[in-house]
Design brief:
With 139 residues, the protein is an alpha/beta fold. It has 4 helices and 5 strands. It has a 5-stranded mixed beta sheet, sandwiched between helices.
Amino acid sequence: MSGRLLGIDYGEKRIGLAISDGLGIGARELTILQSHGVNQDFAAIAAIAMRERAVAVVVGVPVNPNAPPGLVTQAAIVRDWITKLRDAIDLPVHEVSEYLTSEEARNMARMLKRRANEPIDDLAACVILQSFLDARSRR
């Protein structure tokens, strides 16, 4: 798969977005969307994907290996959102584990000298997308 990929860090209040270069080597933060409900969110994501000429989407799933069985986890909520996203946009949607990406995003925010209370959802999306790109290049 060649072309730009759109990375997504889904949250109920905010959705972080990142974009890759056309060669699929590097990712950079793009923007943070304030959530306005699935229909508006999906329309905004589709418009951004089109504007950025994305050929696929990568969404982080917060897999917690220590979660008790049967518990409705954030991963289940995100996977449900991904199912709806797949129906709403005409691009392939890939899932990638985002376990511990928030810590990496916080470290990036410190390096970029962001304020402590500034959202980092776009940086988390960048970490998610870069991990997907790195794993793909190792194959």
